[in-house]
Amino acid sequence: MIFRIAYRNVKKNWRKSYAAILAIAVGFVAQSLFVGYLDNVEKLFEAMYANKQMYGDLIIEDARRMQSVGKYDPLKYAISADSASQISEWVNQRPDTVHSYVQFLQFSGMITDGKTQLVVVGSGNDHKYSQKMRQAFAWDAKYGTPLEAEPKPLTALLGVQLGSWMGCLPNPTVELNLELTGYPPVIRPFKCSNQLLQVTALTESGQINALNFSIKGLADGGIREIDSRLLLTDLKSIQTLLNTNKITYATLKWNSGVNQHESKKELNKLLKSIDENLHFVSWKEHEDGILFAQSMEILNVFRYFVVIIVLLIAGMSVFNTSIKSVIERVKEIGTLLSLGFKQIHVLQIFLAESLITCLIGNVFGCLIATSITTLLNSLNIGYRAGIYTEATLIQINFIPLAFFNAAIVTFVVSGLTTYFAVKYFINKRIIQNLNG
Amino acid sequence: MAASTLLELNDVEKTYLLGEVKVPALSKINLKINTGEFTTIIGPSGSGKTTLMNLIGSLDTPDAGQILFEGLDISNLTNNRRSEYLNKKIGFVFQSFNLIPVLSVFENVELPLLVIEKMSAQERHDRVAWCLDNVGLFDFKNYRPDQLSGGQRQRVAIARALSNHPKLILADEPTANLDSKTAHQIINLLLDLNEKYNLTFLFCSHDEKLIKRVRRVIHLSDGSILND
Amino acid sequence: MTNTFFRLAYRGLLRNKKRTALTALAFIIGYVGLLILAGYTYRVNNVLLNQAIYLNMNGHIRIQKIGAENYWAAPLKYLISQDHILAIIKELQIFDDNIEFVGEKLKVASQIVYDDKTYPVFIDGYSLNAEKRARTHPKLQQSLSGFFSYVPTPLIQTKVNSVGASITPELSHIMGIVTRDPIAPPAFDAQLVGLDFESNLNAIDIIVNRRHLTSSAFMRNYSVEMDIESARRLTNVDGASEINIFLKSEVNLNQFLNNTNDLLEKKFPQQFKAELFSTDEVSPEYTGNMSFLMVMMVFFLIIIGGSVILSILNVLTMSIMERKSEIGTLLSLGYSKFQVRKIFIYESFILGTFGIFIGYIISLFFASVINNLEFTFTPPGALGVAFIRIDINILLGFYIAIIMLLPLLILSYFATCKQTQKKLVHLLNDNEGGT
Amino acid sequence: MKYYIIFSYFIFANVSLAQVSPEVLLKESDKSRGGIEDGLSWVSELKTRENGQTTVRKFLVKSKGTDAIVEATEPLRTKGEIYVFNDRNMWLVKPDLKKPVSISPKAKLTGLASNGDIASTWYSRDYTAALEKKENIKNESHYVLLLKAKTNTTTYDQIRYWINEKTQLATKADFLSLQGDVLKTAIFRYENKIKLGGKSIPFVSEMYIEDKSREDYKSILKYIDLKTSKYKTGEFNINNIRN
Fold first, then answer.
1. Terminus-to-terminus CA distance in chain D, angstroms?
2. Do the chains contact at A207 and D156, CB–CB below 8 Å?
3. CA-to-CA distance for B31 and B25, rounded, in angstroms?
4. Which chain C positions have a beta carbon within 8 Å of D92's beta carbon?
5. Span A96-109, mean pLDDT?
6. CA atoms within 13 Å, Cβ hemisphere of C178
7. Residue D18: pLDDT band by 50, 70, 90 thresholds?
8. For the stretch B132-159, what's the b/e string if a residue is b when 16 or more beta carbons lie within 10 angstroms of its beta carbon?
9. Residue C367 pLDDT > 60, yes or no?
10. What is the DSSP code string of B109-153?
11. CA-based nearest residue in chain C for residue A305
12. DSSP state of C304
């Protein structure tokens, strides 16, 4: 009966509390949109680091590589061929736990098209799992074709800017945005004025070596300074160029559902048995991934600040509405009390009422949130976040959990505010209620 | 206290604070009401009629004195005890009916029964039917209050007051909002109920027609009883 | 006449003090929230702006040869020769009252040699007087102080006779010299070896006695700053990669840009182009971060502003419902519909201005609290650890006030429309339930 | 950027036509290209053509064994610059430099001094030789040797070396990458004569270098007025050199 009274009351004077409903809806929308946006940014970063740049879950490297000594002489603190093969063997024995494992050899040298000679910085990676680890970014060639499409040694992708300096120009240029779905796997044409570009580098022991690479495509380097120097090729080619069989680092991704804690302990034991300098670290803690932590930090500060403000305001208007509806129905409260209803019953009625209002508010919120989300996602508003070469799209992910949390929070807020509003009136003696 | 005394007021006093001014609404009221009596309190407005009614109905608490109902002092009960007293012992009929607009007639009458835990839906249904029969509105049970006339609404209020077999029905100006013909019918209904079920009625009014047909009249003026 | 409306509106608000207070509180919370956010964005913009102009020595306007984005591919081809520099500076004299000072920048790729270590570096050679004026510019010092723990010092070190070079702490670690305190770093002698622009091998001595920070994560391992003369000695040229014009504060940037481009086109056809510092090409960090913050601000504006206005409307509809009979009486006394509506608009107006006034004061208080608490965080692509600073001024307060007040008044107008359309009889003896 | 040529001096020795062994052939040919134990000096003129621009530089070269001092004389701007070679290590000494600056292997990568190794003297010391085939160039028969670096610290890992059967002088050299691709080609001409141990032997007069990866890029190095002389060994050690 209590619910029936509450339901009928809301139905009767919904017009009066539509603003409260809208306030709740706005509170709901604010939360879910922001959480959806944050989730997208986080997923975008993860996709860019874990998939596109193939950092996977863990980076396996010599701990000294990122220290100043390592930066000065990278090859000296690379992983030896023997250690690398032991790790690869360990990986091959665990097809069910390891999703993908890619080895990298970084290098820097000079590249020339016969006329211009420029610094080139890049890496060769083994192609066995690389496309699998890249997942949505398997097709990493913004123009031309990915290397894995037709694995041949001495084929390479150049950064778009470096490509243009080396006479490899897209025709026509295409504007692609940073998206979770990666590039559409279609060949966007490009043309190099000369088929082979010579890359010169010092071998591990300091000898000059040079290889001619045929350019299969252009890839996006992410930030400007990298894109104007980037060359990606297969591991063997770079090992030949540097006349070494070392690798700079390797990355590993666990299969989903794997007990990562257990596998990590096992891997750690393996690494320490091979060489106590070897360690693994997630890209989020790695110097390369520092940008991610910084961005998420500032985004979360924004998020909590806004959500608190919006909920305070929504709480205010719910409070106002419930006070008003209580004032309006003081006589009714008096009657109920006079009929022997206890205070708790009256409170329940109003709480039920605020519950219903909140429910409607949340439903409204859902509708508004999903419509804004689809609208925003379809508008493809792009903005250049920080120093990235490609614009990122404003995308909001649909997160049921966020909707659920938002609903819970609005229920709590409106429940509390109604409680306080009604409490004030119930304590008044019945007679005051009756006379209104 | 005589066996059949239902209600006894001893030296009951009540003063109100209007701004800074203390207004004595009731002073030294002594009164006995026996079961089955049909009594009216009359007096000019501001004579304390409504205050007295409220005190008896424990809607308000007296400043001094005792109010004994069936020997039990009800002047300041705890919330829960008071709800029980209201629910089981007292039935109210208000001047402005005070029906729940969003509930149907049936549901309004059923309201007081809902507080009683051990009453099954079927028992409630029979009880409400019985009440509505008594006020002759059974056919209107699914109507909403705002679809009824003033008289009919007051009958529903009376039916509601009957529904929990109260010992005493308090009615505050029950006929004030009604035209004379309907008022007359309501008074007949009250008298019938009083005779049929020996229900004790106590109401205040300044409706001459009602006063003429009542056996016991209590005159109130300026907070004290003139004659009884 | 209007003050009666004001009185009516004012009393209308006082009628239900509790509710008015609550609504005002909602407005204040919204206003404070938005003003704090605006204050933060304003401060970050201020920092990034000055960082791009003064710290990175781009100046407000950068002049380069046309096609200079390919500078690294053919430096000699895109170098501005010394006589071109002098000619351009002479031509620019016609804008002298706008120009504070002009600097030159020479970019060189070379290698740093220190005991047996050789490491590739990218050198920025700055004209010394421009660099000194820029790095000690009050605008830069004031915007960085309290925001970053790092305060730049000019290359000219009074205590060291010859002019020093500056590298980043990361680069000095790579070269084997640990820098704990960037303000007073250990100085060391090193040499720069490089190909001059005619591919002759060349080398110069440098004293590295300063450390600087770069906002670009990549450049942290490679950046060297020094005076342009040394860079010219290394490359055996007397030109510069770009000319940077630092303008006085009240100059209209876009207009100055157009004038400069027209001048360059007239005097040196098809040779030079001038660009604003706030473009992707010149300072990507600035444009990137600011566009991100702007997207955030618009988002918050809509959400917070929206919920505040909704809550006030909620109250407004209530108070209108309650005062049906009052509206009825006023109409019956011959007030026009519009006049009656004005009362309610004034009500919102009073509520709003009251909220803004109190809100502004509270925001100032909050801002100082947050500023003193010195929350620190490391924004992406920044000069290391930064403090959260809120910078609130009247202008900001005014803009936010307008943004919140205008829609409120407009919506208040519409909210009252529905009621005042009703037939008088309805309003007077309202029988719609309620009081 | 284009290559800058620094070169070193050669050692000159008698050619004996014993049974042809690649090692001996290589050793003999080295003598006509430098590494004179006692010392040799000459004026070197370097003409470089790159992307249509030609620049000329002149140097005064003093060499002894695997060490050399190369003093820039033209263009005037470079006067006073001295390049010092101690075996494979290289320094640049300039009047305005407090101390000589060492040029690291990395510098070779950017083409700063890669040509210095082309002219380095003792291939026979650094490389093992194997006879690949015999070939006729301008109807003179030549032995074609394939030199392989003994240690992996030489600038170039492999060199294909043409030695004229009759004159036993090296006429052409292809510098190969580890995979055998030709990176640079050098062609030698011997019109100079120097007196050594009482005999006059032919000595390189011109070296023509071409970079396979650069279309429009050629360097011609001329050796003018050679003089043998006696230098003290310490004279070439970097530590003793003060500008």
1. 28
2. yes
3. 16
4. 193, 201-203
5. 93
6. 3
7. very low
8. bebbebbebbebbbeebebbbbbbbbbb
9. yes
10. HHHHHHT-TT--HHHHHHHHHHHHHHHT-GGGTTS-GGGS-HHHH
11. C33
12. I
Domain boundaries, chain B: 5-227
Indicate the DSSP class of residue C212.
-
Contact B114 A4 (CB under 8 A): no
Beta bridge partners of C268: none
CA neighbours within 13 Å on the CB side: how many for B140? 24
Residue B72 three-state SS: strand
Q: What is the pLDDT of residues B134-162, one digit of tens each?
A: 888 888 888 888 888 888 888 888 888 88
Nearest to A288 by CA among A77, A50, A75, A103: A50
Q: Give residue-wise pLDDT tens across range D80-137.
A: 888 888 877 888 888 888 888 888 777 666 554 455 555 556 788 888 988 888 888 8
Cβ–Cβ of A240/D178 closer than 8 Å? yes
Partners of residue C33 in chain A, C-beta under 8 Å: 305-306, 309
- Tokens 């249904």 correspond to B125
Verify D-C touch: 3 or more CB pairs within 8 A.
yes
Task: Count CB atoms within 10 A of the CB of residue C421.
Answer: 8
Decide yes or no: CATH 3.40.50.300 for domain B5-227.
yes
Out of C33, C288, C317, closest to residue A387 by CB: C288
Max mean pLDDT among A89-98, B19-28, B84-93 falls in A89-98
pLDDT digits (tens, 9 = 90+) for C244-270: 999 998 888 999 999 999 999 999 999
The reported pTM is 0.78
For residue C67, pLDDT beyond 80: yes
SS3 (DSSP) at A130: helix
> With an 8 Å Cβ cutoff, are D111 and A117 in contact?
yes
Q: What is the rounded distance in angstroms from the CA atom of residue A185 to the CA atom of residue C433?
A: 66
Please name each of the domains of chain D with its CATH number. 19-105+115-228 (2.50.20.10)
Distances (CA, A) of D192 to C186, D37, D171, D188: 55, 18, 14, 12
Element (H, E) at C396: helix C394-421
D contacts of A165 (beta carbons < 8 Å): none
D77, D106, D112 ranked by CB distance to C195: nearest: D112
Beta strands (DSSP E) in A153-302 are 155-159, 168-170, 190-192, 196-202, 208-219, 230-234, 249-254, 278-282
Contact list, D215 vs chain A (CB under 8 Å): 114-115
Q: Which of A9-18, C169-178, D173-182 has the lowest mean pLDDT?
A: A9-18
Position A16 scores a pLDDT of 64
Q: Does D3 lie at the interface with A, CB-CB under 8 angstroms?
A: no
ipTM for this prediction: 0.72
Report d(CA A153, CA A147) in Å as an integer: 9
- CA-wise closest residue to B156 among B189, B126, B123, B188: B189
| Whether the Cβ atoms of residue A395 and residue A180 lie closer than 8 Å to each other | yes
